[in-house]
Amino acid sequence: MSDSGNRFVTNLMKDAAQLLGTAKQIAPFKDDTLRATEIIPDKLLREELESLHIPINLNLNGSVEIRLSDDEMIAYADFFPPSGKGEPINASQFHEKLSDRNITCGVDGDRIKELIFKCNTERKEIQNQIIARGKSPVCQVPAHIELTAKFNNKTLAGDCFSDGGKIDYKKTNYLVLVKKGETIANQIPKTTGVMGQTVTNKAIPYTTSAVPKWKPGENTEVENLRVVAACDGRFVTSRNVFAVREVLEIYSDIDYSTGNLNYPKDVVLHGSVQDGFKLDIGGSLVCKKTLTATEVSCRENLSVSGGIVGRNRGIVTVEGSIRTNFIENSHVEAKDGIYVKKSILNSFVYSQGEITLGNKGQILGGKIYAGQGLQAYQIGSERSPKTEIVTGIDFIAQRNLFEIKDKTFELVRLLSRLNKAKDKYPDNISIPTTINKVQDTLRHLREQAATLLQALNKNECAEVKIFGMVCAGVSIEICNVVYIVTKRMDSVVFRLDKTKGRIVAEKRKLNG
Predict the structure, then answer these.
(1) Where are the beta strands (DSSP E) in 293-337?
(2) What's the pLDDT at 52?
(3) Comparing C-alpha atoms, which of 327, 271, 261 is closest to residue 296?
(4) Which of 101, 301, 412, 471 is the most buried (most CB within 10 A)?
(5) Of 27-36, 320-329, 439-448, which has the strongest mean pLDDT?
(6) pTM of the entire predicted model
């Protein structure tokens, strides 16, 4: 190219640099700390020249662009090397830029020196480099007591069906046993909070963590920063208090050598219960074998490794939940849920919660009351006695209503005899007094019955879910509405249609 051509190109580049360098009004960066009137940086100048296909032979000084994250916790820098005979990046000028942006906290001086040296010597752009970090606040943690993992993950569950009718076995452990001296919890000292700081030296307040408010209860001791069990027993909690409750372990049978068992706390029974003997347990009962029941009462939960056999006269009443493998020829009641892995045979079973059977669980014969619904694989068979399922009903309210009904009939008959006696013996002043007492009692019973009727239909949304088959002849009752199965049905859900006042049977959905 001629000298005149070189001069033309040189002048053209100078004009372009002047025009681009004096363009004051540009769109602001996302970082709102940059002014809208910021001079266009050398980087933009280079890009504009390259877009015009003009070779960059300018003597441009090295430069640095600094930007902040939205929360001002990180400062980034882009380093641009000098071109031609331009001046290299100057460390003092770099720090002036930091000062202009008020970046004073967490500046990595050594890193900055390294990057400046590398950019100046290698003559390559270096972008998106972190040159300063703020300090995150440290959360304040109050002093508290923290349960160890063993006692902080206690679960209570039974067999439940998951999507597709497959069983989801959950770990059930009504009794979490603890040994004397075992660590139950640790005392965690207070951690003082520390204020945070942005790279622009703005203070960030710390927060205070929410912590569990556990308190040690009976049969626990504090040793250094540990809370340990003072005796062998069962780990229990009540609201925010944890304790160790003594557990009675019996390795023999309940028979003539022990007599009837009446114990106010928890019992683990490794032996059997011989015919005719009674158990009255004030806590929970864990039976490691089959429970041959004559009369068993538990104030809390019952867990039976084998099954419950009643021989058509055994009565089991539990105020908590029941878990067992099977129930056979028994009368069983629980205020909470009942979980039966295999089968319920010719039994009367009552629950105010839900009754759930395992993935092949069968109900053959008997009458089942499940206040919150029922799940089973099979109900009834061609050869089994009649099977009745009643759900949505508070069986205790229903039983009380029956008792009120019987008592009312007796009192009405008594009142009729008293009225006849009053006419026959008008001078007997005790008869009118007795009549008034009977009438008052009848009035009170009517009031009780009205209250119980309101509580009778406990759950109109209760459902009976069958994952296998339900056979002809089975009776399904939901909130006093009855459905008689007239032919075999597979994979079906029975529910109450309140608008039509009848039970409908629907094909079970895959995830139902």
Answers:
(1) 295-298, 302-304, 308-318, 322-334
(2) 56
(3) 261
(4) 301
(5) 320-329
(6) 0.55
Burial of 333 (C-beta count, 10 Å sphere; 0-12/13-18/19+): buried
What single letter denotes the amino acid at residue 37?
Answer: T
| Confidence (pLDDT) at 47 | 62
Render pLDDT for 94-108 as a digit per residue (tens, 0 to 9).
Answer: 888 898 899 989 999
Contact 13/54 with Cβ under 8 angstroms?
Answer: yes
Mean pLDDT to the nearest integer, 443-459: 76
Contact (CB, 8 A) for 370 and 387: no
Is the separation of the CB atoms in 365 and 386 below 8 Å?
A: yes
Per-residue tokens: 403: 């008792």
Q: Distance between CA atoms of 157 and 165, rounded to whole angstroms? A: 17
**Nearest Cα to 169, choosing from 413, 392, 294, 356?**
356
Q: How confident is the model at residue 403 (pLDDT cuts 50, 70, 90)?
A: confident
Q: Is 486 in contact with 508 (CB distance < 8 Å)?
A: no
Question: Exposed e or buried b for every residue in 414-445, given b needs 16+ CB within 10 A?
Answer: ebeebeeeeeeeeeeeebeeebeebeeebeeb
- Output the pLDDT for position 185: 94
Domains and CATH numbers, the chain: 3-133 (no CATH), 144-244 (no CATH), 259-394+459-507 (no CATH), 397-456 (1.20.58)
Q: Are 322 and 339 spatial neighbours (Cβ–Cβ below 8 Å)?
A: yes
The pLDDT tens digits of the residues spanning 228-237 come to 999 888 788 8
Torsion sign across C-alpha atoms 13, 15, 21, 25: negative
449: closest CA among 501, 392, 409, 390?
A: 409
Measure CA 157 to chain center.
Answer: 12
